[in-house]
# Entry
Amino acid sequence: MPPGTYKRLEPALIDHPVFGLLAAPADITLTLPVARTASGAALPSTPANSGFSKQFLRAGIEEMALIRGCRSALVNSIENNYPIQENWVESYRGWASTSLRLASVAASTDSDRSAVQLLSNELDNMKALSDKLLAERKMMHIVSSETLNDDPLNHNILTWARSLASMVVGGEFVDDASCR
# Structure
């Protein structure tokens, strides 16, 4: 088939607003015009798997913001001696998990798919840190800001966030050894 031609081989049902469910024929061919320059030459197609897609960048930035927000809430609670509440930690986790799923669905390039794994690892680290802090609270241990600052999970979250942010600025996935 020439470029810009797509063929659907399987029958489909169409939910028409007036006529209800209609069976569409199995053999439909759709031919779209190929983009051309002013001289009439076909435009080169951009590689489908290079850099971050716009949809993934939006979803990935949202995910990074939610993880950063959760970490900030934890740090603020500890620095101000507020109790860490399981219900708001669970709310952040739910929002971040939903956002990660959206980022996963938006991933369409190799860079996107590689970054999804980093986002997933970042969320796992945030969950581990919040679990640790909630366990300390249940045992009535006081967690100081110095203890949090020395925590390797906290450092990993910050390092990964900086690495992901630099990838967003660069527009492409970079295999960063600090994120493994």
In short: The helical segments are 54-79, 86-106, 110-138, 145-150, 152-170. Residues 31 and 93 are 45 Å apart (CA to CA). The two ends are 43 Å apart (CA to CA).
